[in-house]
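Narrative of activities, Objective 1.

The group set out to show that a structural description can be obtained from nothing but a protein's sequence at a throughput compatible with the screening campaign. Below is one input-output pair from the validation batch, recorded exactly as produced.
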Amino acid sequence: MSDTTTTQVEVPRLKVKYDTEIRAALKDSLGLANIMQVPRLEKIVLNMGVGAAVAQPSLLEGAVKDLTTIAGQKPIITKAKKSIAGFKLREGNAIGAKVTLRGARKWDFLDRLTSLAIPRIRDFRGLNPRSFDGRGNYTFGVTEQLIFPEINYDRVDTTRGMDITIVTTARTNAEGKALLDAFAFPFRKDDR
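Output recorded for this entry:
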């Protein structure tokens, strides 16, 4: 008789909420015929551009360390695609870092983003509801990495901003916004 132990994997809180509540509610509210048509999260991409890394490569090391701490996985280094003389940039220079979150890390990050990080933004009045790309994907920027509680304020060499892109399977901006609204995403109430 073999002694096998099964490890119980904990399912992220937001994924359980999506599967049990949000998915069926979105199917009804969007008037979709099939449950498989309901938009879902595909991935979350964090991108940190460090243009000053051309002159000072240590800034890129700090950005990689910060993104590793925030995302829980090692980012890849992005390189310049072409030379631009005005920016003293040569093709192949390292100018940023990005990380793509999928699976359980995606759900955990979204949970931490909406419940912990976004409320820590100074003078926060809501995210722009018009920052969708036309296919239901949402991109917004944060000006400093200090909003994430994992970052130790005393060990930060400089404040860096980043772009966060939430990629969904939605076909339109309205479907993408409905999905993010279901996750209680803090959109600004526009009166324009």
